[in-house]
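call fold(seq) -> tokens
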Amino acid sequence: MGGCLFLCLVLLSGSLQVVSAGSGLRSCTRDSKLCRDGSECVLYRYLCDGEQDCEDGSDEEDCETSCSKDQFQCAHGKMCIEKSQTHCLPAYFLCDGEEDCLDGTDEASCAEDKKEEDTSTTSVPSVLVGPSHPIKCSFGFIPCSDNSECIRSNYFCDGEGDCRDGSDEAKCSSSCEKDQFQCAHGRMCIEKSQVCDGVPHCQDRSDEVECTKHMEGCSHQCDNKSRCIPSSFLCDGESDCSDGSDEAKCDKEDCSDTEFKCTSGQCVLATMRCDGHPDCRDRSDEEDCTKVPACNTKLRCPQSKECLVQEWICDGDQDCKDGTDEKDCPVAPVNCGEFQWLCKSKTKCIPTAWMCDGMKDCNDGTDETECQAVTCAPHQFQCGSQECLEPNLVCNGITNCADGSDEGGSCHTDCAEADDMRCSQGCYNTPQGPRCRCAAGFRLMEDGLACADVDECEVQTPGVCSQLCINTPGSYRCDCQPGFIMEADGQHCKITGEPFLLSSVQTDIFLYGLRSHSLVTLPSSAKKAVMSLDYDWKGQKVFWVSLEMDAIMWSSLEQKMTGSLIKGVRADSIAVDWVGRNLYWINGVKSRIVAIRLAAASASSLGQSIILDEDLDQPRSLALLPQKGLMFWTEIGNVVKIERAGMDGSERRAVVNSSLGWPGGVAVDAISERVYWTDERLRAIGSATLDGDDIRILQIKETTNPFSVAVFNDMLYWSDAKKRVVQAAHKISGKNHQVLLKRPRQPFAVKIIHPMLQMGTENPCKKMGCSHMCVLAPGPRAVCKCPPGLLLAEDDLTCSNLVNSAFLLLLSPSSVTQIYLQSQHTAAELKGWPKHLALQIPSVNKAILMDYSLKEHTLFVTDDATSSLSSFRLKDSLLTSQGQLLELLDDAITAMAVDWITLNIYWSSYKQPRLQVTAVTGTYTAILIKDGIIRVGSIALHPPSGRLCFTNMDLEATGSTATIVCASMDGAERRVVWKDAVQPTSLVLSNNGDNIFWADTSLGTIGSVLIDGSGYTELKVDDGLAAVALSDNILLWITVTDKTRLWYKADQQDKKLWFEVGTQVVSLKAFSKPSQMGSNPCTESNGNCEHLCLATPAGRTCKCSYDHILLNDTHCSPEQHCPAGSRPCLDHLSCLPVEKFCDGHADCADHSDENCVGTNRRSGAEVFAPTQPHSSPPSSVPPVSQVTGLNTTLNVSIQRVNLDAQQCSQRRCSGNGHCVEMKEVTTCVCSLGYSGDSCENQLVKTMQGPIVYAAVGLCAVVVIIVAVVLVKRKKSANLRGNGPSAGKEMSMTDLESKAETIPTSHTVSAEKPEVDLP
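ret:
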């Protein structure tokens, strides 16, 4: 007990030292002690062990010189270990098979056999303490019940006692389940499928003994009865037994009545017999043909007469039986790709992964001779000449290294006894002196003494185990996924049952047996190429989409029936969710991913849901991984990338955005958990982990034009539409290349069919009660989704109609997102969009400002990229352009708001820093306020009350540089309501028009004030405040930092985060029926105003366009202060010739001559008529019946004098104007160029004649030019119709045009003769 007391004192003193050391000394863990000088910590088991570990030797001071009678003293020094069980040190230190004394005397004279134990340094705790200190085991280890040691978790209940107290075999089940096998030595249970599979799973190998017994699932014993294979492996053309017995005595099976049996036994369709193309692998279907087949390709072999296409000539694969297609081929220059290496002979390029892989791939072998320094296994000795030797070959008197570096030097210095004791696995002689060695599968630790296990599953070359790799002490073993059986090599797995290749070849759908090589077609109604397909094994259907069909079709795997899942949809790529029972597709035109239930009864709009429609530029191909609830897609728009999201659209992120050229097809390998894609630009196939790590690019000569890709087990399958082949190769190395299908028509989509690929995952949607649709989310877990127009209720199960129609619009540079506030109940700080509708804005790339009319369903958007304002009609979840309302030149609109009653647009710009209003037709513009405005930053309107507010910004001044100004909507009654703002933006008026709210992005506050300037309130929000919106009593705002976040606050509640997204948002507005409810005098007939009707608190004001004047309260007449043939600038500071307007060059100081309506801007050489009748002839005042928006009864009587109008004009107006009657007084309205009460003053008398002729000539020119313009506009419209949207439509159709179209039998020209290959 003296030793125990001493050890306890040591532990106590060590603890006190650590506590007292404070922050100035090193802190030690509880299983170690601080040396006296504080320089390091040593484990307690190293105290008094006879070896100095502290630099100051303090670990060997104050040690007992003798051991107690129940202890054993090591011969080398002072260390004592217990002879019997105590709580201080366990008794099994003595003769336990491990040297605890450095001289090994605790293991001397031990007669009994020692059990071999795990030598990993992690398997034994570093210090053994009493039960009051629970033992801490490493990951993968479990403590025994007596808390004395740790053993591996897989040693528990394995039938062998590993804990000395036997606790690892206590409380174990005494019997196995029905589908399990019990090992003979104990209680260990393994799966029956692991019995007699050639790999021992029981420690006593009883699972591989007596394998002659019949085991369920096994039908053939081979390899000395050590291996059992299923019947599907027999006679499948692949040798699975080492003795080859599985492929012996194979009888050829008969083919069906609709098939032709090849000489090799392969079955192909009878229609393929003598069709000019060999479909049998032995070409027997093209032998003994009675007549030469017609070739649709118009090219054939000269002697054997097979049909050819140009791409098959000199492609390295013999297609003509006579071999003429590969004769006299020119030597093409060798140009290696980015991910290839040029052999020294400069005749071949190989993938970089083939270099130094142990196989010679270059003809000259330089890929294995030009290697960098060889890395030896951790336990090996590396020669100076780079060879690797086992330790027993070093210093053995025989030179094994090329440079002799394994001999000589200090080889004569043998390992001393002390060296052997210090090394955990022994010592060996080297030319550098004695060194510790480790067994194979272990590596030497940094201390140069201890050995640790090498995890081969992490460091081995990829592909050592084709599926599962399990690390074992000093080694590893391979295992297979359920449904697969380990092959004889112990590394590769093979699935039970034959897998099939599913491929679309132009309009045909082929099913090709990967073992039997059988070839059949499925029924198809396609008239153009089938670009994408997938299958549902449970429903026994293949789903596909063709270029000419706006539908998703299906064909039965029984080869009998066809049908449609849904019609009236555009699908570019489809993918089947076989777990959640849904089908997903990409709509490239609308840039969205949609899902629909597979159930036939739900093939309608109510059975589908939009999964993603936000920030999708040009998605190309889609792949699902339902086992994890994930989907992947390729993006080929402005930024090429591969993205990932949950199958509900959540947790979206880009996983690959480098090493990409033009990613096309995409597939997911569920076994290796990697995503694969084709890349036409790089001429390669890439892959990465599901998180986007470990990117590998496979670039071989066979991947020059990859279109679609599929992955199964160890192999990669891809189609090449240009070369018209479907090929396969090893998915990692690219070796074992095979040509599977080679037909004259183009192959596109490829998939692998096998029932095991769609089994083994429970459907979480079965437990949900979704009213409409259930989709998978990451996990997988189940989430309910709603069709467009319905929202998810608070129970997260039921879809219901809108109760609250209020919604938000969030503007992004090229899209706008609509979110109904009714979905706010899901506000749980969402990491993604709530239920929403994303709308792409046609031809807009830099949207900045927006407004919306509920009544007209019209969105108004300004685009900084084109300095324009456009309107878009929202219908059927799609925005349709209604044209530009305004286009500026060298300018940008800074503020914009729409009067939702009249649709008049209030706006301002950098070059025109005024508050002005333009009619929705673009024909009338008036200035409301211009004095004292530096820059208008935001505008808010309240048409029912006739009020407006705007911000007046002065960004160049210091201090408070902005004011908030309110006025009537005609610009009158202007007043400042708040003057202490810094950068106010996003003005919004309350529904009753009494309060004005704004976001101050500089102060980070949301301010509000009454319309009279009183009652200021302020809400401090988070950093990054960008915009604010108001819906009834709910305040909403966005902050932009690392993410775009939307917050809300209702009444007196605290602010809450609704959701956050990575999308750029530039504007936020809220809309509801109450927000656009009410009327004013302008509601009916434009208030009887001829040009602009502007509401005011007292009524309305009729306003004329800037170059007109009011004749009375409602009607306007051209203002006559500019010379003939000219018009005023908007600022009224100068007049310019008509041809200077909209000529593409700003001539007015405020650039207003380039405020053009629609696309009326022209080049300098063209002459255009004015876009609005500012300088109209006298007849510009229209009759009552022609005035837009006027009733037949007017407030002010104005009409032309009709009875003797000519006489009145001649007499009263000197023939230079016309008579009008105003308030019972007849007055003259003068024609262009005249003034005065009687129009007697001619502005330029000497120019009277030329003006008349010029006017006539100008009219003629105008007529001609207008005709030209109309033609150009029509052409331009046609071009725009084939613009961005059409470009998206071409994303799939152009794939046919890129590869030459192969004419079918009914399209072949009779005049074009067939050509034999010369």
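The first helix runs from residue 2 to 21.
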